[in-house]
Design goal:
Elements: E1 6-7, H1 11-16, E2 20-24, E3 27-32, H2 37-46, E4 48-52, E5 57-62, H3 66-73, E6 86-92, E7 98-108, E8 111-116, H4 121-137, E9 144-148, E10 151-156, H5 160-166, E11 178-180, E12 187-190, E13 198-203, H6 205-216, E14 221-223, H7 226-235, H8 262-267, H9 273-282, E15 286-293, E16 304-306, E17 312-322, E18 327-335, E19 345-349, E20 352-359
Parallel strand pairs: 1-3, 4-14
Antiparallel strand pairs: 2-3, 4-10, 5-8, 5-9, 6-7, 7-8, 10-13, 11-12, 12-13, 15-18, 15-20, 16-17, 16-19, 17-18, 19-20
Length: 371
């Protein structure tokens, strides 16, 4: 790989582990390891999978205007977050399209951690800094935006907590959608992108190397690549920005309005507020749904969807085989009246019409530790 491709700080560890690499969001990422996608996927569902997600970006927002900055940037109430509480939210554009989805954690009275997606990290950085500068010049508030240089690891699965405990990191008091700083320059949260109980840890490179070594001594832990991460999140019905949600898709169409408090929907002054209220008033034209192809043929992103008489009614945004589900799984958008339909649609796969049913999400149950 050449050009502007970025490399993970721990790339040498992945090379030594036999990883096969590929480009993703401008990074050279481990796609699979010698065990293969199926084994990596099932290892995460049954035991614990270790993911290097250092391509993602951590931003610290601090200062007396941190709440106000986040309330302008995101459709949520930063002031309602308790210390250590995390919240799934978005950056929206003026048309209420999703610029990025992210998780915000309150670390202190005037400090927040924002975890952003890799492909949007630079744009998110500019977006936050521009908002902070604009508001400062208007005398509205004062907030500082710091992009942190950290290795970022995720360990997911029902035995993730036990593996961390054996490695010297206790997790018992940390519940789902909470985060804190267990040590200096460390950030740890309990959320996950697989539907399983799991943890994310941002830490300095030297500490990360030591932690990885301790974790991989545990037979319950295995490196897992980007390919299995995708099949895991798809089974869990979780969106991938750039496919299932984009700057052209709003939270109402995406079925993500649960992330926006009712009072914020009604009176929030976040970017895109007026546009989102207008969409809610008239109703979204399309809805994100789970899709289950009939038979064993996976239906991939980009496939068009048709009704029984051949009329285009939607498209697939993510698709593949679900190793835990035991059948092909997909997500996509259909015209709103069809979102609750029990009649099969048809996906065009290289000229062949594959019957496909609308299916409830998630395909596999979430197993978060909510207390």
């Amino acid at each position: 790989m050449t050009g502007d491709i970025k490399h993970l700080p721990l790339e040498d560890l992945h090379v030594a582990a036999g990883a096969r690499f590929g480009a993703f969001a401008g990074w050279s990422m481990p796609l699979t390891y010698p065990a293969g996608v199926m084994k990596e996927h099932l290892q995460t569902r049954e035991h614990a999978g270790l993911f290097d997600i250092s391509h993602m970006k951590l931003f610290e927002i601090s200062g007396p205007g941190a709440e106000a900055l986040l309330n302008r940037a995101c459709p949520f109430d930063a002031g309602a977050l308790e210390i250590s509480q995390s919240k799934y939210t978005f950056f929206l554009n003026e048309a209420a399209g999703i610029i990025d989805d992210l998780i915000v954690t309150r670390l202190g009275q005037q400090r927040f951690m924002v975890v952003a997606n890799a492909g949007n990290a630079e744009a998110d950085d500019k977006h936050l800094r521009a908002l902070a500068l604009d508001s400062e010049t208007k005398g509205v508030f004062d907030a500082k935006v710091d992009a942190l240089d950290r290795v970022f690891l995720a360990i997911q699965g029902p035995e993730a907590w036990a593996a961390l405990s054996r490695a010297g990191i206790e997790t018992g008091s940390l519940l789902f959608m909470h985060g804190f700083e267990p040590r200096e320059n460390w950030f740890m949260s309990r959320s996950g992108y697989t539907g399983e109980d799991g943890f994310e840890i941002g830490l300095p490179e030297a500490d990360a190397r030591n932690l990885v070594a301790r974790l991989l001594e545990d037979e319950r832990v295995m490196w897992v690549g980007l390919a299995a991460r995708d099949s895991l999140r798809l089974e869990a019905g979780l969106c991938l920005h750039g496919l299932d949600i984009t700057p052209e898709i709003d939270p109402a169409s995406a079925g993500l309005m649960w992330a926006i408090p009712k009072e914020v929907r009604a009176s929030g002054t976040f970017i895109g507020a007026d546009a989102l209220r207008a969409i809610l008033e008239r109703g979204p034209a399309q809805k994100r749904v789970g899709l289950k192809p009939q038979g064993r043929q996976p239906v991939r992103a980009g496939a068009s969807l048709f009704n029984a008489v051949g009329k285009p009614v939607g498209h697939v945004t993510s698709g593949g085989f679900g190793p835990s589900a035991g059948f092909p799984v997909a997500m996509g958008y259909v015209e709103t009246p069809l979102a609750s339909s029990t009649s099969p649609l048809f996906a065009d796969v290289r000229g062949t019409k594959i019957p496909i049913d609308i299916n409830p999400l998630p395909f596999t149950p979430h197993r978060y530790r909510k207390g």
